[in-house]
């Protein structure tokens, strides 16, 4: 099963993608996580990506596409994967389709987690992330049982720099300009499925499951 997650920053793509990946035993591939791990390890890619991420801008396609296409060629992607945060531009989606076609494959579902802008700033300002293991929490909707300590690995949780309200507004603008057109792109391929992302996370998960089980 090959799935693309679409939705605004903070819509809940990562939260859902992790649950789907666990249920279907497929890898969860998050370009945001890949960039953040490169930043943490001080790689050249990390240094370049950080300049854009800190400003709420997209990392250029040249630095993003090959990275993902290579990742999809790895052994653990044989029986499918869930893409979270990629593609984010039409050229990225076209490059992905070209790579799939070359391998005689195709995307099965594009799941659009729909959340209006009004809800997003609240979601993002309450998001806490574990820089060590990548777990994500929300101070109100999904808190860690240990306050600001990660339930999974015990590291201290942080508010991402790019989740501060000024940067969130910028990222929302970028989303509408560059990423939202993918909804039409996948709709015209006949694989778009939209779920109401304002529901409780378990209800969103149930809605996605019923789509994937169709
Ligand atoms: P969120 O989950 O809040 O939408 P991500 O973790 O997916 O955020 O991404 C964080 C940042 O990483 C983005 O704002 C962008 O700068 C960069 N990024 C992630 N994925 C991509 C991509 N496919 N293309 C370009 N930039 C990306
Ligand atoms: P994305 O990957 O789309 O940027 P996340 O999955 O990181 O979004 O979710 C953004 C924030 O909102 C996190 O703090 C997360 O715990 C919280 N969240 C996710 N889904 C829901 C939901 N259905 N209701 C309330 N909060 C949610
Ligand atoms: Zn952790």
How would you summarize this macromolecular structure in one to three sentences?
This protein has 214 residues and is of the alpha/beta class. Helices cover 48% and strands 15% of the residues. Bound molecules: adenosine-5'-diphosphate (2 copies) and zinc ion.
Relevant terms:
alpha/beta; three-stranded antiparallel beta sheet; globular; binds adenosine-5'-diphosphate; 9 helices; five-stranded parallel beta sheet; 214 residues; binds zinc ion
Q: Mind explaining what this structure looks like?
A:
- The protein is of the alpha/beta class and about 210 residues long.
- It is about 50% helix and about 15% strand.
- The protein contains 9 helices and 8 strands.
- It has helices at about 15-25, 30-40, 45-55, 60-70, 90-100, 115-125, 165-180, 180-190, 200-210; strands spanning about 1-5, 30, 80-85, 110-115, 125-130, 135-140, 155-160, 190-195.
- The strands form 2 sheets. Strands 2-3-1-4-8 form a 5-stranded parallel beta sheet, with helices on both faces. Strands 6-5-7 form a 3-stranded antiparallel beta sheet.
- α1 packs across α9.
- The longest helix has 15 residues, at about 165-180.
- The protein is globular.
- The relative contact order is 0.19.
- The model has no long low-confidence stretch (mean pLDDT about 95).
- The structure holds adenosine-5'-diphosphate (2 copies) and zinc ion.
- One adenosine-5'-diphosphate binds next to α1, α2 and α3.
């Amino acid at each position: 099963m090959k799935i693309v997650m679409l939705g605004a920053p903070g819509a809940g793509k990562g939260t859902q993608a992790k649950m789907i990946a666990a249920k279907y035993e497929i890898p969860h591939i998050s370009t945001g996580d890949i960039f953040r791990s490169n930043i943490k390890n001080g790689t050249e890619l990390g240094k370049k990506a950080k300049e854009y991420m800190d400003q709420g801008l997209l990392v250029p396609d040249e630095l993003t596409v090959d990275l993902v296409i290579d990742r999809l060629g790895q052994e653990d992607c044989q029986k499918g994967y869930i893409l979270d945060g990629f593609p984010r531009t039409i050229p990225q989606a076209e490059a992905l389709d070209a790579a799939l076609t070359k391998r005689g494959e195709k995307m099965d579902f594009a799941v659009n987690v729909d959340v209006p802008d009004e809800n997003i700033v609240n979601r993002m300002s309450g998001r806490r992330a574990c820089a060590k293991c990548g777990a994500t929490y929300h101070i109100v909707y999904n808190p860690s049982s240990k306050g600001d300590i990660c339930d999974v690995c015990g590291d201290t949780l942080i508010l991402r720099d790019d989740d501060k309200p000024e940067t969130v507004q910028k990222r929302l603008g970028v989303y509408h300009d560059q990423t939202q057109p993918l909804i039409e792109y996948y709709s015209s391929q006949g694989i778009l499925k939209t779920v109401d992302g304002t529901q409780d996370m378990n209800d969103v998960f149930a809605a996605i499951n019923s789509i994937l089980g169709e």
